[in-house]
Task: structure prediction
Amino acid sequence: QYRVSFSSLLIFAYLLLFSRDTLRINVRDLWYLVVLGALGMGGVQVTYLFAISKIKVAMAILLQYLAPFFVAIYSYLFFKEKMDRWKVLSIFLAFAGCFFVVEVYSVSFFSLDKKGIIAGLLSAGFFSFYSLLGERLMRKYNPWTVLFYSFVFAALLFNIILPPKNIFLWRTEFRWWFTVIYIISFGTVIPFGFYFIGIEHLRATRASIVATLEPISAGILSYTILGEALTPWQIFGGLLVITAIIIIQFRKEIDPEAPAYKKKSCPIQVKE
Result:
């Protein structure tokens, strides 16, 4: 609730000052943006946090990184995206790498809470939906426009369900404001923004594969900043993910179907 609410305010302030035109949308596309925010963004947040509360964090992360599978299958079946052997290999390598990085092999799968597993799978599904619908919308709109409205409608949903009693009360503690600004900027707006820019140029399938670098980055930062040791299996997993990203980037640089190269002036047409 904090993340999406304050993130929408931050992006709004930036766009209002530096790129006011990007706030404009066609009213006929409003429904897609409502669905993207409330169902896509909201669904990811709720299911992922619920999964973490029920099962090991490592397993929740791994389940969410099933998203590239879902994105690739849906894109192949409904968007007619080509699926060559290198793309398939990249998806499997990325997933295997995440498996080792988050040390899921140390978790007893059958002892995990079933509700948590279902929530983790739903999180991957919502993340896939968010990526795919975002790609369609970015054929017409700037990535920051799509991101802003997705945060807005997710925030509206959360604040309706959970009325913000204290969220906007004035706080004077420097540490509190520093933490909030840090989480909003570096933990939400920047990564989501870069992910959408990646989708704009690479399409959802390739961008979701590259996004599996996230747990690798977390591991490296934990090692360099917190002094946490990395096991040989984690290093091996990181190499698998990096290999997957290298393979997927060997494909042609420009995809003519990517939103950056296929902007449309007509209302969004989302295939059923």
Remarks:
- The CA atoms of residues 1 and 162 lie 8 Å apart.
